[in-house]
Amino acid sequence: xxxxxVTSTPEDRSHFKELxxxxxxxxxxxxxxxxxxxxxxxxxxxxxxxIDTLWDILIICSVPVFVxxxxxxxxxxxxxxxxxxxxxxxxxxxxxxxxxxxVWTAIPAIILVALCSYSYVVLTDIEKAEADALEVRVVGEQxxxxxxYEDASGKEFGSPQLYVPRGRQVNFTVESKDVIHDFxxxxxxxxxxxxxxxxxxxxxTPKTIGQYPVVCAxxxxxxxxxxxxxxxxxxxxxxDRWVQERGQQxxxxxxxxxxxxxxxGDAAAPDGKAIFTxxxxxxxxALSDAATTGGTGPNLDETLxxxxxxxxxxxxxxxxxxxxxxxxxxxxxxxxxDQLTPPELDALVKYLDEVTG
Length: 357
Ligand code: CUA
Hints:
Blueprint: H1 10-36, H2 46-79, H3 98-126, E1 134-141, E2 144-150, E3 156-159, E4 162-165, E5 170-176, E6 181-184, E7 191-194, E8 200-204, E9 210-216, E10 229-234, H4 236-250, H5 272-278, E11 286-287, E12 292-293, H6 300-303, H7 309-317, H8 336-339, H9 342-355
Parallel strand pairs: 1-5, 4-10
Antiparallel strand pairs: 1-2, 2-3, 5-8, 6-7, 6-9, 9-10, 11-12
Helix pairs in contact: 1-2, 2-3, 5-9, 7-9
Bound molecules: dinuclear copper ion.
């Protein structure tokens, strides 16, 4: 009884061929669908290219495994189900098949080792540091990101918008002021946790000019969903100009205009409404003039109606100084004094003062 040999009949062989044909056709359809579907947003980094290729190869290797298992299950249900009158019958006494077992253990093992090795190579490649990498510090807090750069004199300045030059590696040093956040630009494909008391790093080489969302990918509190800003991938010359102008503005220079004629006519006063929108204020605050409806923080039309510019400025820079009724201290980020340059802050305050009467 132990190893009674069961020979396959011509009928078995034709079943096997049928099963194999259905499995192959289904796999081809499955892989084609997997490759045709546009899984990800625009690809804006060089690392993204490698990661998307890795994804395609994982699809090619894993979809047939899934499809074959399902096909075998469904085929057996269809072909070998019990028919009336077979209730008392027993199947043939099969006790294992060493050859088959070696094959079905070896194939998955080989696939796994190959895919792990390939992923490892891709990861080490995209994490390689380049000598001329741009350093950007990213600070997360409830509920905003601040991006910190160094100007030509090595002085640090902040921005609520992420600007990066195309074609140059950026080394992000990521920190958190409070709970765990996660710095993620889906178009760049990579993300990393921001943890209080720890510095984490992420290297990305922006590839495609454009604007992409920066999001927080770790549930971090009431405003997690609105912890969204914008990453701008620009030409290197434009990036240098931006650093120069913003650096000057940040170090208190309206006299920045004297600096040179090259910067020239760009000295237009910042637009308060644009700053309100771009900084993401509307994510938490309702303000009818900007058509925002956020409810995490106070409604500005109401709470600022009888307030003067000095109060508004204090509320932006030091929000916990006076808290609107019904809201908790500590809810609004204290980063806006760092993120906004003095002219931007002036423009924002002036705008809020005007539209809230
Ligand atoms: Cu910060 Cu979620």
